[in-house]
Specification:
Layout (H helix, E strand, L loop, with lengths): L2 H19 L5 H13 L10 E4 L9 E4 L3 H13 L18 E4 L2 E4 L4
Antiparallel strand pairs: 1-2, 3-4
Helix pairs in contact: 2-3
């Protein structure tokens, strides 16, 4: 490969890296990805297996997951939030205190209001 061809390849690779870096995800896209992570992480047999995760803005205030998956979900939430473009922020000023956790139909969730 000629020196000129090598230079062109390096330029194209560098340009592709810059373009890829500027393709941040929207809040909606990361919410969809986070919902899938939660869905695969909230299986339970009993409420004692459940725990709350507070993923942060722009994701939900809190989600119920299996306690064995709590660290994983928190890590994935942080990674997804870092991928946002920062242009959208549908964050609430404050979050309500979550209710008790229950295991319903094999899934961790907040108990329904009485």
């Amino acid at each position: 490969m000629s020196k000129r061809a090598k230079t062109m390849v390096l330029l194209l690779v560098g340009l592709a890296g810059l373009v890829g870096a500027s393709c941040a995800k929207s809040d909606e896209e990361i919410q969809e990805e986070f919902d899938a992570i939660v869905a695969e992480s909230n299986a339970c047999n009993d409420a004692s297996e459940c725990a709350y995760v507070e993923p942060g803005c722009p994701l939900q205030c809190f989600v119920a997951v299996n306690s064995a998956k709590k660290e994983y979900v928190e890590k994935e939430a942080r990674a997804l939030i870092e991928e946002t473009d920062g242009s959208e922020r549908a964050c609430l000023d404050g979050c309500a205190v979550p209710g008790p956790l229950v295991c319903t139909e094999g899934r961790c969730q907040e108990s329904a209001s009485p």
